[in-house]
Amino acid sequence: MAQNLRNLIFKGIDEGVIPTLMDFIRVPNLSPLYDSEWETNGRMEQAISVITGYMDSLNIRNFTKEIIREPGKAPILFGEVQATQPGLGTVLIYGHIDKQPHFTGWIEGANNTEPAIINGKLYGRGGGDDGYSMPTAALLVKTLQTLEIPHGRIVIIGENEEESGSINLKYYLNKLKDRIGEPEVTFCLDSGIGDYEHFWITNSLRGVLKIDVTVRLINEGVHSGGSGVIPDSFRILRQLLDRIEDSKSGEILLPELHTQIPPEIYAQAAATASIIDEVKSVSWVSGGKPVTEDKVMQTVNQTWKPTLCVVGAEGFPTIQNAGNLIRPYTSVRLSIRLPPGINGPAAQERVIHELTRDPPYGAHIEIKTAKPNEGWRLQPLSPWLSESIQRASQEYFGKDALYFGVGGSIHLMGMLAEIFPSTELLVTGILGTDSGAHSCNENLRIDYLRSFACCVGSILADHARK
To answer: Which domain of life, per UniProt (predicted)?
Structure first.
């Protein structure tokens, strides 16, 4: 079976999935958070059509699909393939179709909506995050059917708001709960990997708080000759942020945002430290250094400690247009990562309290928040699934599968655990540390996608045989 599966999947990736992704990349659709006209400009519908058009071209037996639409909510793709025989159980496969905003700085020959294959990598916005997931899932089902390999009932969900915080996903999952059934295994294909030599399974994700802070002290700008009397709003903001973070070390100062790190996390970090090198994947300036040179602590910091980043700012003119003016206000967007197990709403409440209590100089502090996203930790897998993962990895990568924590978030995980408490969650993906997700030069390694897809296909086959 293994060789036939490999041959068909490799061929399907090269001749079907990659051309589909190139068409998908050409569509300038963005997640609703970044496109106020998503309901009228037709880009989201065009992207969905590219994906569903490929699915239809495969002529999968007993496959039906529907685009579920609700007023004011981005549509969601619901696909269903009946099992080859009764009693084989259900598998849920999740991916998303929406994309992050466009970015400058792409390598020559590639751009956000200009797909290019360079040195075995497909470049373009949304290919690896997460456009590949839906067509690859469809290809796997078709491959199993072509080889007459039994498979369970397979449900495919394609979201269009993941990059906007999955604000309506819980609504859709509850609406579709009876149609989805009780999945025994759920694949989330939106995660990252440590290298391109192994099959990787994510065993933890951090949560995230998105908080916009505005410091306002005067109603209109004043000549900077007034400094010394009028406090600068940026200086006030710095004081507020110093309540949250030690700016010298980067350590978060609020105990409520920390968790007791399990001892096995340090052991796991030590085991993968020689493989995962986040530092090497970063384009540092000459002489630039990481927070710590300790590779184990780099992994622990990135996956199990809270951190703060300023990811956006307003209230500043460009340098070219900056005059001698004390600005009326300073606004920043904070991205605060939370360790697994931290209560998101409670953490957000604590941060807001620190930002708004006793404002220096009587400044007005304005806060806007998104819904908190909590972290997640993988629960022990059933023996058949653990064995299937390792068997697939050995067959298609020649090495054991590896487990590791990811510093980012996937909003889906907490919802799935709540709505489908009995499902086994398998979080995986194809994004390497050099994949440029959310930035310029987003890319996917085609050879990795081929072998990765074989592993997922093998697990689907094992699910039906368990």
So the answer is: Eukaryota
List the CATH code of the domain at 207-268+294-369.
Answer: 3.30.70.360
Are 299 and 266 in contact by the 8 Å Cβ rule? The answer is: no
pLDDT (tens digit per residue) in 431-446: 998 898 999 999 999 9
Residues 6+ apart with CB under 8 A from 169: 76, 159, 161, 162, 411, 412, 415
Amino acid at 239: Q
CA distance 28 to 46: 9
Rounded CA-CA distance 135/127 in Å is 11
Spans of all domains in the chain: 2-205+375-465, 207-268+294-369
DSSP state of 89: -
Q: What is the pLDDT of residues 314-330, one digit of tens each?
A: 999 999 999 999 999 99
Q: What pLDDT does 186 receive?
A: 98
Beta-strand relationship, 207-216 and 364-369: antiparallel
Question: Taking the model in full, what pTM does it have?
Answer: 0.88
- What number of other Cβ atoms are within 10 A of residue 443's Cβ? 25
pLDDT of 410 > 90? The answer is no
Count CA within 13 A, CB hemisphere, residue 290: 17
**Helix, strand, coil percent content, the chain, rounded in steps of 5:** 40, 25, 40
What is the distance, to the nearest Å, from the Cα of residue 59 to the centroid of all Cα atoms in its chain?
30
Own/partner pairs, 179-182, CB within 8 angstroms, 24+ separation: 179/78, 179/80, 179/155, 180/90, 180/92, 180/155, 180/420, 181/90, 181/153, 181/155, 182/90, 182/420, 182/422, 182/423
- Strand order across the 443-445 sheet: 116-118, 121-123, 443-445
The per-residue b/e assignment along 370-393, b for 16 or more CB within 10 angstroms, e otherwise, is bebbbbbbbeebeeebeebbebbb
Q: What is the spatial distance between Cα 123 and Cα 115, in angstroms, rounded to a whole number?
A: 5
Q: How confident is the model at residue 283 (pLDDT cuts 50, 70, 90)?
A: confident
Tracing tokens 């700016």 back to the chain, one arrives at 247
Q: Output the CATH code of domain 2-205+375-465.
A: 3.40.630.10
